[in-house]
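Example 5.3 — Disulfide bond formation protein DsbA
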Amino acid sequence: MRLYVDPVCPFAYLALRWLDEVATLRDLDLDVRLMSLAVLGEADPDREPESVRGTESAWRPVRVGVAVGPRLREFVLRFGGLYHAEGVRGRDEVLRRVLTAMDLSSLRAAADDPSFDAAVRRSHDEGMAPVGLEVGTPVIHVDGVAFFGPVLGAVPRGQDALDVLDGAVALASYAGFCELKRTRTGGLSF
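Solution (predicted structure tokens):
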């Protein structure tokens, strides 16, 4: 199974934590990869370019994600823990803390290095190709099926975690299935 995430997305963080819960209950080989909300935003003419957002640019965490290589899953979990769950603000501060905790402070310069952008785009394109560009993150690929979501407001536990996965895969496996959605109520529970 592949999970495509952007570290700045709270729903991607919740999806990773949910699939980690599934992995405690079922044999699951989870490969975490990057997609990019910055890349998706390039198609929106009304969206402010990421280049004007400075240290808050969505490019910075995904560049670091490429730089950390095989430790991407850990990076996304640590970034999400600080940024989403603990509410630490200033993406640069979160990056600094995460890289320090991972003993990878030397990779901090990757945040501002556009030479990582091609790798971000390759991973993003690979993740989005089977689902289209009208979705965001998370995107899951499993057993030849790819889909956006599920967008979760909390991490399901135990049998609920398994049921959510099985239901999502079953729906996505039906060739005529396109979308299932309802309005989110309440805040997110990390």
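Remark. Residues 10-25 form the longest helix (16 residues).
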